[in-house]
Amino acid sequence: MHEGLLAILRKLRSNPDKELRLLLLGLDNAGKTTILKSLASEDITQVTPTQGFNIKSVQSEGFKLNVWDIGGARKIRPYWRNYFENTDVLIYVVDSADIKRLEETGQELSELLLEEKLRGVPLLVYANKQDLGHAVTAAEIAEGLGLHNIKDRDWQIQSCIAIEGKGVKEGLEWACKNIKRK
Ligand code: G3D
Ligand code: MG
């Protein structure tokens, strides 16, 4: 039987008493909802869609995940900051087959990395949709996003195929190892 990734995460976690907070962000269509589903499987206890903002808060024993589409709607951006507090890991999802929007997604990521409340928070980038023939490699995504210029936090790029659950777990393992002790 498929074990939910949150169950796996629960075992990897170094400090089981502390709630782990994950932010899962990216442009629309990147694959966030697909990753969310593979994370959660059976053990989601609560999904709260926030009226009008399209932010999903998912809570499971010991975990809190906040998920939304970035890009567009600049006027609601200040509201996002409410969800940045105490984030342990920022997970950024990129559609590796959507070269047209690589620059846009890179721009959005750069803005996020400037957020004071996300300062020093480890960054995991999923180069998703690696099954598609025209997808570019994780290394090319890293290059396109300028990840090698990031000096103020740990970061990792992980290729994945969210619809098949491939690579998702490996990314989370990195994330768990890189959570800062507060
Ligand atoms: P979002 O929540 O970031 O907006 P979704 O993205 O998770 O809703 O995914 C957007 C579309 O991409 C979905 O297709 C989904 O099935 C598809 N997708 C997600 N991950 C992968 C992947 O690894 N490979 C491929 N080929 N497709 C993927 P639909 O057709 O349902 O809109
Ligand atoms: Mg979605």
TrEMBL record:
Read off the InterPro entries from this record.
ARL2/3 (IPR044612), P-loop_NTPase (IPR027417), Small_GTP-bd (IPR005225), Small_GTPase_ARF/SAR (IPR006689)
Binding positions for Mg(2+)?
Answer: 33, 50
Q: Which gene encodes it?
A: 105618115
Family annotation (PANTHER family): ADP-RIBOSYLATION FACTOR-LIKE PROTEIN 2-RELATED
Cellular localisation: Golgi apparatus
Which GO CC terms are listed, alphabetically?
A: Golgi apparatus
Keywords tagged on the record: Golgi apparatus, GTP-binding, Lipoprotein, Magnesium, Metal-binding, Myristate, Nucleotide-binding, Protein transport, Transport
GO molecular function terms here? GTP binding; GTPase activity; metal ion binding
Which Pfam families does this one have? Arf (PF00025)
User: Which protein is depicted?
Assistant: ADP-ribosylation factor-like protein 3
| SMART domains, A to Z | ARF (SM00177), SAR (SM00178)
Write out the similarity annotation. Answer: Belongs to the small GTPase superfamily. Arf family.
Residues involved in GTP binding: 26-33, 72, 128-131
UniProt entry tagged with the keyword Metal-binding = yes
Q: Which GO terms describe its biological process?
A: establishment of localization in cell; protein transport; system development; vesicle-mediated transport
